[in-house]
Amino acid sequence: MKWDFIDEYEAWAFKLSLGLIVVFFVAVVGLAALKGIDVPTCVTEFKPFEKGELVQLGPKEYQLKLLARMWSFEPREIVIPAGAKVTVYTTSLDVQHGFEIEGKAVNLMTIPGAVNKAEIVFKRPGEYRIVCNEFCGIGHQTMYGIIKVLPEEEYEKWREGSR
Ligand SMILES: [Cu+2]
Question: What is the CATH number that goes with domain 53-161?
Answer without folding.
Answer: 2.60.40.420
